[in-house]
C-alpha cells in the first residue's frame, strides 16, 4: 500500500507534512537527475508494482532457506519477464543499471534476486568485453533470458589479487578449444552470485596460456549446465557456498573445472585475441581494460549506496516523527523522538549523505560516460583518473552508507531490530558492498597510488588532472586560512588531503633514502595512505556535492534552494567537526572557531527539523519498495508491527509441540 488516504495517516506525520515549507516534487526531480527521469521511474514503478503487490503470500523471512530460494527464483522469473517485455521498452538497454529498474527490483525482493548478477555483471561484461560479432551472438540470448549468467572471478584463495587467480584456460590449437582447469582447492571459483543453482552460463576469469606462455587473466563465457536438464556438464562441479550473513537468496556459488573444454570463440575478445594457431594478439591500448566491468559496477555502487541509505533514512525519520518517548519537561506530553537534538544528529546526516552520494554518483556516472566515449575513439588517457575516482568513491560511499544505515537502526530503538523494519536486511546487504567489487582498504590504496604520483607532479610544477588540481596550490605547504564559508571549508578539506598525501610521499622518500626498498616503504606507509585517500575522497564529495547543489538549484524555487543548501552545509560542517584534529593540523582553525562551528551545526539541525519528513518524502519511495513496518507513508507503525507479529509461524497455535515433547516432561522430571 502506498500513500493511502489522508484519513489513515498518523496525525503526527500529517502535522509534519503540513509544516514542510518547500516543494517536495522539485527535490525529487533533483534526486532522480531531472523531471524526465522521475517520470520515467514512476512509469516503470506503475507497470511493475501492480504485479509485485500480489507476489508474496507469506513474509520471506518466515520461509526456510530452500523455500526462500525457490520463491526468489519464482519472483525473478516474473520480474525478468516484466523487464524484458515492458521495462526495457521504456528505458532502453543503456538503462540496465538505471535507478528506475533498480528501485523496482526492490519491490520484488526484500533480499537479493539470484538473477541480480545476470543483468548486473553478466550482460554488462558481454557489452564491455566482447567483439561486435560475439555481442550479436550472446546478447540477444542473455536479454531474452534463454541463457542465465553469473560472473565468476573470485576464488577460494584469492579475491583482491586478481593477478594471483589460479584457474587456467589453456589453448589447444589441435581442436581450437580452451581447456579450463582448477588445479588446486584454492583455485575453486567462490562467491559468484547466481552461480550455485541458477545460472547455466558463467563468465570465468582465468589465466590464459597459449603456446606455453601465460598472458595473465582474461574473461571467457562458459556454458556450465545443460539448457534442458540443468545438470552440470561433465568436468564441471558447481554448488552453493553455504549460509551467509545476507544474500541468502542470491545463490552465491562455487565452481570447479576438470579439463573442461570450450570453443576458442568463447574467449571474450574485445581487448585481446587468441588466433586459430594459438597466436596471442593484444588489441587494447590499456593493460587493465579487462577490469572494465569492475569499474562500471564500482561507478554504479555509489548511487546504490545513496539509494539504500535514503531508504533507511526514510524509515528512521518517519518512525521518529511517530514515536514519542520520555518526559523532559514535567507535566508536558512526551515529545516526538525527532524533537531530540541527539536524534536529529543521528538522522539528518543520513539524509544529507544520501543527497551527497546521489549527486556525486550522478556526476561520476557522467564522468564515466565521457571516459567511455574517449575510449571508443581509442583514447585511454583519462582511465587512470577514472579508476582512482571510482575506487575511492566506491570505498567511502559503501562504508559511510553501511555505518549510517546501522545508525538509523539504532535510532529506531528496539523496533529497529525487527526484521519487519527492514533495517537489518538493508544493513546486511549494504555492508557486503564495502567488500565486494573491491575491498575498502584495497581500493583506497589504489587511489593512493594515483595521489602520490599526482603529488610528485604538483611538486615539479606539472599540470594536474581535474580531480587533483587542488594539489597544485597545496604544494606551497603552508597552513590554509580557515573560514567557515562553504568555499573555505572545502579549501580546508583539500588542504587536509594534500597535507596527508604530502606526508605519505615524504615518508616514502625518507624510507627509501635510508635503504628501504620502494615496496617496503609503500607498505610501511599504507596506514597513512588509506587515511590520505579517504581525506581526498571526502574533499571531492564535498566539492562535487556543493557544486551540484548550486548548479541544480539555480532554477529552483527559493525554498528548495534554501533547504538543499542547508543540508549540504550540514554535511560539510558535520565532517569538519568529525575531523577537527586534521583541521587543527592543516588549517589555522582555533578553539573559538571550533565552538562557532559547533553552534552552526546545532542551528542547522534546528533549521532542518521542520522539513525532515518532507525531505524523506522527497526520496519518493513507495511502501512496496521500503518493505517496512516502521517507515510506511501512513505511519501506522504499531498496527503494522502487530499485524506482522501475528504472521509469525510461532503464532499459528497457542501451544507448540515442543511443550509436550520437552517442557512438560522436564517439569514432571521425566526427561
Ligand atoms: C552483487 C555482488 C556483485 C559482486 C561482484 C564481485 O565482487 S566481482 C569481483 C570483484 N573483484 C574485485 O573487485 C577485485 C579487486 N581487485 C582489483 O581490482 C585488482 O586486483 C587491483 C586493482 C587491486 C590490483 O590489480 P593489479 O594487481 O592488476 O594492479 P596493480 O595494483 O599492480 O596496479 C597496476 C596499475 O594498474 C592500475 N589499475 C588497476 N586496476 C585498474 C583499472 N580497473 N583501471 C585502470 N587502471 C587500473 C593501477 O592504478 C596501477 O597503475 P600505476 O600506479 O602502475 O600507474
Ligand atoms: C556478498 C558477496 C557477493 C560477491 N559476489 C561476487 C561475484 O558475483 N563474483 C565474484 O567474482 N566475486 C564476488 N564476491 C567476492 C568479492 O569480490 C571479494 O570478496 C572481494 O573482492 C574481496 O576479496 P577477498 O574476499 O579475497 O578478501 P581479501 O583480499 O582476502 O581481504 C581480506 C583482508 O585483507 C586485506 N587485504 C587484502 N589485500 C590487501 C593489500 N594488498 N593491502 C592491504 N590489505 C589487504 C583486506 O583489506 C581485507 O581486510 C562477492 C563477495 C561477497 C561478500
UniProtKB/TrEMBL annotation:
Its cofactor is FAD. Residues 23-148 form the Acyl-coenzyme A oxidase N-terminal domain. InterPro entries: ACOX_C_alpha1 (IPR055060), Acyl-CoA_ox_N (IPR029320), Acyl-CoA_Oxase/DH_mid-dom_sf (IPR046373), Acyl-CoA_oxidase (IPR012258), Acyl-CoA_oxidase_C (IPR002655), AcylCo_DH-like_C (IPR036250), AcylCoA_DH/ox_N_sf (IPR037069), AcylCoA_DH/oxidase_NM_dom_sf (IPR009100). Pathway: Lipid metabolism; peroxisomal fatty acid beta-oxidation. It is found in: Peroxisome. This is Acyl-coenzyme A oxidase. The active site is at 437 (proton acceptor). One of its GO terms (molecular function) is acyl-CoA oxidase activity. Its main location: other. Residues 291-452 form the Acyl-CoA oxidase C-alpha1 domain. One of its GO terms (biological process) is lipid homeostasis. Keywords: FAD, Fatty acid metabolism, Flavoprotein, Lipid metabolism, Oxidoreductase, Peroxisome. FAD binds at residues 154, 193. GO terms for cellular component: peroxisome. Residues 487-667 form the Acyl-CoA oxidase C-terminal domain. Belongs to the acyl-CoA oxidase family.
Amino acid at each position: 500500500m502506498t500513500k493511502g488516504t489522508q484519513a489513515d495517516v498518523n496525525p503526527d506525520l500529517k502535522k509534519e507534512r503540513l509544516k514542510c515549507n518547500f516543494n517536495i516534487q522539485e527535490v525529487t526531480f533533483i534526486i532522480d537527475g531531472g523531471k524526465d527521469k522521475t517520470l520515467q521511474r514512476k512509469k516503470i514503478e506503475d507497470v511493475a508494482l501492480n504485479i509485485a503487490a500480489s507476489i508474496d503470500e507469506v513474509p520471506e523471512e518466515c520461509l526456510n532457506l530452500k523455500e526462500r530460494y525457490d520463491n526468489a527464483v519464482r519472483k525473478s522469473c516474473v520480474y525478468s519477464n516484466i523487464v524484458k517485455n515492458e521495462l526495457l521498452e521504456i528505458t532502453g538497454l543503456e538503462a540496465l543499471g538505471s535507478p528506475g529498474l533498480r528501485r523496482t527490483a526492490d519491490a520484488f525482493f526484500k533480499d537479493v534476486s539470484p538473477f541480480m548478477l545476470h543483468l548486473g555483471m553478466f550482460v554488462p561484461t558481454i557489452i564491455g568485453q566482447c567483439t561486435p560479432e560475439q555481442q550479436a551472438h550472446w546478447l540477444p540470448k542473455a536479454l531474452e533470458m534463454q541463457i542465465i549468467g553469473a560472473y565468476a572471478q573470485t576464488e577460494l584463495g584469492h579475491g583482491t589479487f586478481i593477478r594471483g587467480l589460479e584457474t587456467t584456460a589453456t589453448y589447444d590449437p589441435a581442436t581450437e578449444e580452451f581447456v579450463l582447469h582448477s588445479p588446486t582447492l584454492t583455485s575453486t571459483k567462490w562467491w559468484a552470485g547466481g552461480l550455485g543453482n541458477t545460472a547455466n552460463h558463467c563468465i570465468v576469469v582465468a589465466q590464459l596460456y597459449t603456446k606455453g606462455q601465460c598472458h595473465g587473466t582474461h574473461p571467457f563465457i562458459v556454458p556450465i549446465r545443460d539448457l534442458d536438464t540443468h545438470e552440470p556438464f561433465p568436468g564441471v562441479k558447481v554448488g552453493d557456498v553455504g549460509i551467509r550473513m545476507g544474500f541468502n537468496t542470491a545463490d552465491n556459488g562455487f565452481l570447479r573445472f576438470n579439463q573442461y573444454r570450450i570453443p576458442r570463440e568463447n574467449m571474450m575478445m574485445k581487448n585481446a585475441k587468441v588466433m586459430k594457431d594459438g597466436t596471442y594478439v593484444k588489441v587494447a591500448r590499456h593493460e587493465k581494460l579487462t577490469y572494465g566491468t569492475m569499474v562500471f559496477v564500482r561507478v554504479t555502487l555509489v548511487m546504490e549506496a545513496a539509494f539504500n541509505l535514503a531508504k533507511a533514512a526514510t524509515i528512521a525519520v518517519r518512525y521518529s516523527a511517530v514515536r514519542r518517548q520520555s518526559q523532559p519537561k514535567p507535566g508536558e506530553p512526551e515529545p516526538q523522538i525527532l524533537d531530540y537534538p541527539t536524534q536529529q544528529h543521528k538522522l539528518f546526516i543520513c539524509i544529507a549523505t544520501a543527497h551527497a552520494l546521489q549527486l556525486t554518483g550522478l556526476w561520476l556516472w557522467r564522468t564515466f560516460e565521457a571516459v567511455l566515449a574517449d575510449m571508443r575513439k581509442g583514447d585511454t588517457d583519462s582511465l587512470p583518473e577514472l579508476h582512482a575516482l571510482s575506487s575511492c568513491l566506491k570505498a567511502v560511499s559503501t562504508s559511510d552508507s553501511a555505518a549510517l544505515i546501522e545508525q538509523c537502526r539504532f535510532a529506531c530503538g528496539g523496533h529497529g531490530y525487527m526484521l519487519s523494519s527492514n533495517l537489518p536486511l538493508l544493513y546486511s546487504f549494504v555492508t557486503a558492498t564495502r567488500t565486494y567489487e573491491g575491498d575498502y582498504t584495497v581500493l583506497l590504496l589504489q587511489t593512493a597510488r594515483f595521489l602520490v604520483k599526482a603529488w610528485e607532479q604538483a611538486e615539479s610544477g606539472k599540470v594536474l588532472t581535474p580531480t587533483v588540481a587542488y594539489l597544485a596550490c597545496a604544494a606551497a605547504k603552508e597552513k590554509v586560512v580557515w573560514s567557515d564559508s562553504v568555499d573555505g571549508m572545502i579549501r580546508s578539506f583539500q588542504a587536509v588531503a594534500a597535507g596527508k598525501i604530502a606526508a605519505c610521499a615524504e615518508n616514502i622518500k625518507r624510507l627509501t633514502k635510508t635503504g628501504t626498498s620502494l615496496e617496503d616503504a609503500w607498505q610501511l606507509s599504507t596506514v597513512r595512505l588509506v587515511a590520505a585517500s579517504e581525506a581526498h575522497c571526502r574533499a571531492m564529495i564535498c566539492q562535487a556535492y556543493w557544486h551540484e547543489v548550486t548548479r541544480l538549484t539555480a532554477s529552483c524555487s527559493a525554498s528548495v534552494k534554501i533547504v538543499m543548501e542547508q543540508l549540504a552545509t550540514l554535511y560539510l560542517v558535520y565532517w569538519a567537526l568529525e575531523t577537527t584534529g586534521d583541521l587543527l593540523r592543516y588549517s589555522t582553525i582555533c578553539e573559538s572557531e571550533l565552538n562557532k562551528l559547533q553552534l552552526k551545526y546545532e542551528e542547522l539541525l534546528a533549521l532542518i527539523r521542520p522539513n525532515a519528513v518532507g525531505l524523506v518524502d522527497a526520496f519518493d519511495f513507495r511502501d512496496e519498495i521500503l518493505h517496512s513496518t516502521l517507515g510506511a507513508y501512513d505511519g501506522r507503525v504499531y498496527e503494522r508491527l502487530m499485524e506482522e507479529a501475528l504472521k509469525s509461524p510461532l503464532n499459528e497455535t497457542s501451544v507448540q509441540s515442543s511443550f509436550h515433547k520437552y517442557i512438560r516432561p522436564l517439569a514432571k522430571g521425566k526427561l
